[in-house]
DNA sequence: CCTTGACATAGTAATTATTACTAATTATTT
DNA sequence: AAATAATTAGTAATAATTACTATGTCAAGG
């Protein structure tokens, strides 16, 4: 049997998937991981995602769309997929009842699992679709006066489960650490981010709504 | 609005999908269609599969595996996928009940559909897996003494919904028309194929079992 | 009937996501 | 420490699909 070695690269990959709320693709993970391990190769990311999912540490999704996606969530759940922006969210429901429905016998397959994939339009895209007229107009009074940098910082925070430091955010975005902390201060004053611990920031409900 | 022109190529593509029982991939269809339209381009096949599915004449499946698959079946159904040989079969069951289960509200998505994908081992692969020892031995007494050509003819027939002529089969396989009719005669004698009309052949239950 | 313009086509190039390969490096076992 | 095995970065190769381009076809309006 092959021996599995927990290398530094694998730890970072695993940690990065864990930090990420959604179902990231290999290349997105690669972009993020590169910030920490600048010399890592895309092939290493791909290989390890494959191996980690074989070992059962992560889960590989082969869902709609061109790219495979990965997540850390190991308990059974299904997915819902936005036809418009291609984001994927989790959806929890029993799937066992269907397995028991006698269809297994009916068609002769030995069923080992089931994946349910809903598709539709996610809340965010629904919101985007509604107001079609205000495109040419002011465009700023709706979204609580967020500038590009603030939006970028907020978006980065939004995609993470764990609280981040300013440095983390700088690594995820194109911004410098100084720029980030400046935006964080202003966002905090508006109540769009909270700081559960010194130097640690997370997005608030209001922050999510503002996005 | 764009005008949709039913060209000869599109008719042939549509007909070929209709003739095919499974969920063929673009390149498989291309191989088959080339027999009838030797000058058709793979790009044309791809483009038209896309267009035909937009127009609603066929359905595009984005299921597990690398390639997209297409089928003509327009009423709602779900799929089951063999992890081993990658074949895909239909499975009929109600999916509406899940849509009503309140999860729509729960996550804010506007759900427009749902795809359920079971996976497991298909009957054929199960059969292949069982007898592991007889690999070196005679290898012929089990399968009702089918030779390679007969097997090829039978497999071609098996994949079609409509009765085929010998010429059809010759086109699908690597065999000459004369070779095909010779094999058909012998298969008919064994009861593995039936001839519902003069020059038309279809596979029988016994034929499927023999495969 | 002949031109005009939208739609289609074959053939090919380009792209995207992923996998395979290779030589060098690192860890584990003997 | 030497031998062996696993892993890596970097790059080449592959598979499926899409984009591009020049040419061709068809149907309608002058």
Give the tags.
homodimer, 211 residues, alpha+beta, Arc Repressor Mutant, subunit A, 3-stranded mixed β-sheet, two-stranded antiparallel sheet, 10 helices, 43% helix, globular, DNA-binding
Q: Largest protein interface? A: A-B, 31 and 30 residues
What is the H level of CATH, i.e. the homologous superfamily of the domain at 8-70 in chain A? Winged helix-like DNA-binding domain superfamily/Winged helix DNA-binding domain
**Between the first and last Cα atoms of chain A, what is the distance in angstroms?**
49 Å
Tally of contiguous helical segments of chain A: 10
Order of helices and strands of chain A: HHHEEEEHHEHHHHEEH
Largest sheet of chain A: 3 strands, mixed
Structural class of chain A: alpha+beta
Helix content of chain A: 40-55%
Number of strands of chain A: 7
What is the CATH topology assignment of the domain at 8-70 in chain A?
A: Arc Repressor Mutant, subunit A
Strands of the widest sheet of chain A, in order across it, are: 4-3-5
Mean pLDDT of chain A: 75
The CATH class of the domain at 8-70 in chain A? Mainly Alpha
Shape of chain A: globular
- Assembly classification: homodimer
Q: Unreliable segments of chain A (pLDDT under 50, ≥5 consecutive)? A: 132-143
Radius of gyration of chain A: 20 Å
């Amino acid at each position: 049997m092959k021996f599995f070695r927990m290398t530094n690269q694998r730890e970072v990959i695993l940690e990065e998937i864990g930090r990420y709320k959604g179902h990231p693709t290999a290349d997105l993970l690669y972009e993020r991981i590169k910030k920490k391990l600048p010399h890592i190769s895309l092939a290493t990311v791909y290989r390890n995602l494959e191996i980690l999912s074989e070992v059962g540490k992560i889960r590989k999704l082969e869902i709609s769309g061109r790219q495979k996606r990965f997540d850390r969530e190991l308990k059974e759940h299904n997915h819902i997929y936005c036809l418009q922006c291609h984001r994927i969210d989790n959806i929890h429901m029993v799937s066992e009842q269907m397995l028991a429905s006698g269809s297994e016998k009916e068609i002769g397959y030995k069923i080992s699992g089931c994946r349910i994939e809903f598709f539709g339009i996610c809340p965010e895209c629904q919101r985007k679709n509604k107001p079609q007229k205000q495109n040419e107009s002011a465009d700023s009074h709706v979204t609580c006066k967020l500038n590009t940098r603030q939006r970028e910082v907020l978006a980065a925070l939004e995609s993470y489960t764990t609280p981040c430091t300013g440095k983390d955010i700088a690594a995820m975005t194109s911004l410098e650490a100084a720029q980030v902390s400046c935006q964080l201060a202003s966002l905090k004053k508006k109540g769009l981010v909270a700081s559960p611990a010194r130097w640690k920031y997370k997005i608030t409900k209001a922050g999510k709504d503002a996005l």
